[in-house]
Amino acid sequence: MIKDDDLEGYLKIPGEPTEVHASEITKSYVVLSWTPPKPRGRAPLWYVVEKMCHSPVPQTKPVKPPAQAQSPRMSRLRPQAAVASPVEAPVATPELGFSGSWEKINTAVKLQSPRYPVFDMQDGIKYQFRVYSVNMYGSSGPSVATEPIQKVDKDGKGGL
């Protein structure tokens, strides 16, 4: 049986971190924590954290087409069409939509700890996070993304 310790000297590119989650949620920030990859290799390791914003989807209303006036001559040439029903624009759900892209949030720091505080979160907006392990040989794939997370508001509501 091969053990993780046996692979450490042979492994070049690290595996992805696991169990990424919010270990603290406040009205000012969220602290992300994760488990380092196993095996990770012996090269110095750091992490890259990414976020994806979930923004509220605006509500849309049904749109009626403009009434079409027919000249008396045209109404004699064609039979009168049945009354048209309003054209329905898609109605957005109150659920949250994705911004659609992942954004690196710790580009200025070579993060070596499996914890990272996130301060630049907007009130009432949910975010997902994922983490990569990186060393001098390359980068892992992304971790599994967190569930949507938001800061707590002044009333203590929000979180996961």
CATH class categorisation of the domain at 4-58 and 92-139: Mainly Beta
Q: How many β-strands, per DSSP?
A: 8
Q: Helix proportion of residues, in percent? A: under 10%
CATH architecture of the domain at 4-58 and 92-139: Sandwich
In angstroms, what is the radius of gyration? 26 Å
CATH fold type of the domain at 4-58 and 92-139: Immunoglobulin-like
Q: Output mean pLDDT.
A: 76
What structural category do the secondary elements indicate? mainly beta
Gap between N and C termini, in Å? 40 Å
Which ranges are low-confidence, i.e. pLDDT below 50, for 5 or more consecutive residues?
59-63, 77-96
Describe the protein's architecture and organization.
The protein has helices at 4-7, 72-77; strands at 18-25, 30-35, 46-56, 96-98, 103-104, 115-118, 126-135, 138-139. Strand 7 and strand 8 (138-139) form a beta hairpin. Strands 3, 4, 5, 7 and 8 form a five-stranded antiparallel sheet that branches. It has a three-stranded antiparallel sheet with strand order 1-2-6, with no helix packed on it. It has a domain at 4-58 and 92-139: Immunoglobulin-like (Sandwich). The radius of gyration is 26 Å and the shape is elongated. The protein contains two helices and eight strands; from the N terminus they run H-E-E-E-H-E-E-E-E-E. With 160 residues, the chain is mainly beta. 16% of the residues are buried. The model is unreliable at 59-63 and 77-96 (pLDDT under 50).
